[in-house]
Amino acid sequence: MRHSIAMTVNGRRTVLDVEPHRTLLEVLRDRLDLLGTREGCGVGECGACTVLLNGRAVVSCLVLAVSADGAEITTIEGLAKEGRLDPIRTGAIQCGFCTPGMIMAAKGASVLEGNLCRCTGYAKIHEAIAQSASPPAGRETTSA
Amino acid sequence: MTLIGQRIPKLDAADKATGRSRYIQDLRLPGLLEARVLRSTVPHGRIVSVDVSRAREAPGVFAVLASQDIPPKRYGYAKDTTALKGDRVRRIGDEIAAVAAVDADAAAEALDLIRFEIEPLPAVFDPERTLDPGAPLVHEDRGSNLVRTHDYAHGRVEEGFARAAHVVEGTFRLPAQAHGCLGPAGAVAEWDARGRLTLHDPTQIPFLIQRDLADTLGIPPSDLRIIQPTIAGGFGARLDLYPHEIISALLARAAGRPVRLAMDREEDFATDPVRPRTVVRMRTAAAADGALLAREADVIVDCGAYVSWGAVTPIVMMHTMGSFYRVPHVKYRARTVYTNTAPTGAFRGFGNPEITFAIESQMDELAARIGIDPVEMRLRNANQPGEVTPQGSRITSCGMKECLEAVRERMPPPGTRPPGGRPLLRAAGENLVASATQTETESPSSPAICPAGRIEGTEPARSPLRRGIGVAAVFHVGGGARIYRSDGCGAMVKIDDFGKATVVVGATDIGQGMETVAAQMAAEELGVPLEAVRIAPADTDVRPWDVGVHASRTTFIAGNAVRAAAKDAKRQIEAARTALGLPPDTPYDKVVRSEHFRDQGSLVIGRAYFDPPNAMVDAENKGNVSAAYVFGAHAAEVEVDVETGQVRVLRVVAAHDVGRAINPMYVEGQIEGGVMQGIGYALLEEVILREGGMSNPNFLDYRMPGPQDMPSIETVIVETNDPSGPFGAKGIGEPPLVPVAAAIANAVANATGVRLRELPMTPERVWRALRAWADVEAPGEICGKE
Question: Which residues in A lie closer than 8 A to residue B14 (C-beta atoms)?
Answer without folding.
Answer: 85, 88
